[in-house]
């Protein structure tokens, strides 16, 4: 019988293929080298192909779709339960083949080259920001060795470094020179991160979906471009609640025997998107204080009943549902 479903376990050089027919019977088990992959699938009759969402998976999905195949990406933790035996390439490919055929499986949107290029800019900026934080912490720690305690915030650190430069604070010459060199490196990272942010702002201004999303409270150029590049048109998700669950903004369930118990958020999905949304809502909540519109009153009631972090996550989940609706329907933001 013809192959109807294939599980493809990808790697750098060795690729494992597992195919089944319409009855689920295994009729293909094959190992391919990297140069053989495209040639092999170009000759294979059109079928459903499953791949774990990992490094280079979006590239292979785009390439295989050019041959007419229906390629779907899945999070690795959704594939693991379908692996029957020990972990190896053949068992992984079999598990992928089984998982991709499940009717209720959740799939990862396949990104275009343009979307991946935008996310490359985001990843580079995040690396610079993390390096800047590491340098600032190193400087604070070194200053602390000489009895100089620096308060939280980059502004306080800059103030102390200015005082060191002007001689208002004394340090041994060698320590002063070393810390000054670290501070110069931090300033160069500041400059480069600002350059990346300007590029992201330009991309947001050129993107029609991003411009619409930026009208939501707490969604700026960085969040908007990251969402558009990662999610696309949002049609892979059946509802806004499913999109919020994919982001990990919904509660964990510990329900049994008819008793429903909800815990903290699941933290599944894209960590960066979830972080951007939550940080954005924290900023938005400050500007919403004292306002009388429905959304602001809803946030204020949440803050009264619980606390600011819970309200921020709840608002982020609400914004996620709004974002899904705007991307799928192509509508403008309407203040609730």
Tell me what the structure shows.
The chain is α/β, with parallel strands linked by helices and 336 residues long. It has three domains: 5-100, YqgF/RNase H-like domain (Nucleotidyltransferase, domain 5); 113-206; 209-329, no CATH class. The chain is built from 13 helices and seven strands. The chain has helices at 37-43, 57-65, 76-79, 89-100, 113-144, 154-166, 173-206, 208-213, 221-231, 240-246, 271-288, 294-305, 308-329; strands at 5-9, 14-20, 26-33, 48-52, 70-74, 251-253, 262-265. The strands form two sheets. A five-stranded mixed β-sheet has the order 3-2-1-4-5. Strands 6-7 form a two-stranded antiparallel sheet. A hairpin with a 5-residue loop joins strand 2 (14-20) and strand 3 (26-33). Helix 5 (113-144) packs across helix 9. The longest helix is centred in the middle third of the chain and has 34 residues, at 173-206. It is globular. The model has no long low-confidence stretch (mean pLDDT 93). One of its GO terms (biological process) is DNA transposition. Keywords: Coiled coil. It holds the Pfam family DEDD_Tnp_IS110.
In short:
The protein is of the alpha/beta class.
In the residues, how many domains can be counted?
Answer: 3
Rg over CA atoms, rounded to whole Å, is 25 Å
Terminal CA distance reads 55 Å
Q: Assess the beta-strand content as a share of residues.
A: 5-15%
Give the averaged pLDDT, no decimals. 93
């Amino acid at each position: 019988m013809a192959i109807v479903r294939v599980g493809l376990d990808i790697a750098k050089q060795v690729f494992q293929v597992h195919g089944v027919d319409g009855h689920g019977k295994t009729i293909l088990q094959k190992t391919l080298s990297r140069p053989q992959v495209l040639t092999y699938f170009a000759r294979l009759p059109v079928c459903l192909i499953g791949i774990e969402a990992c490094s280079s998976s979006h590239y292979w999905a785009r390439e295989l779709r050019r041959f007419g195949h229906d390629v779907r990406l899945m999070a690795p933790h959704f594939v693991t339960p379908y692996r029957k035996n020990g972990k190896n390439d053949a068992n992984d490919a079999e598990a992928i083949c089984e998982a991709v055929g499940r009717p209720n499986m959740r799939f990862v949107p396949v990104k275009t080259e343009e979307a991946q290029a935008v996310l490359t800019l985001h990843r580079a900026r995040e690396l610079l920001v993390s390096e800047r934080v590491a340098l600032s912490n190193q400087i604070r720690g070194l200053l602390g060795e000489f009895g100089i305690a620096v308060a939280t915030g980059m502004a306080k650190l800059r103030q102390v470094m200015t005082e060191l430069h002007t001689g208002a604070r004394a340090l041994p010459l060698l320590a002063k020179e070393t810390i000054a060199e670290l501070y110069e490196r931090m300033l160069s990272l500041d400059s480069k991160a600002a350059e990346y942010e300007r590029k992201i702002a330009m991309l947001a201004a050129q993107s029609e979906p991003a411009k619409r999303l930026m009208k939501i409270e707490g969604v700026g150029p960085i969040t908007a471009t990251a969402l558009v590049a990662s999610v696309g048109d949002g049609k892979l998700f059946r509802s806004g609640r499913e999109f919020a669950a994919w982001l990990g903004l919904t509660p964990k369930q510990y329900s049994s025997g008819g008793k429903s118990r909800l815990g903290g958020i699941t933290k599944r999905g894209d960590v960066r998107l979830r972080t951007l949304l939550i940080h954005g809502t924290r900023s938005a909540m400050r500007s919403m204080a004292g306002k009388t519109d429905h959304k602001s009153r809803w946030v204020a009631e949440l803050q009264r009943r619980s606390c600011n972090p819970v309200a921020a996550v709840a608002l982020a989940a609400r914004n996620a549902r709004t974002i899904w609706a705007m991307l799928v329907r192509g509508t403008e933001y309407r203040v609730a």
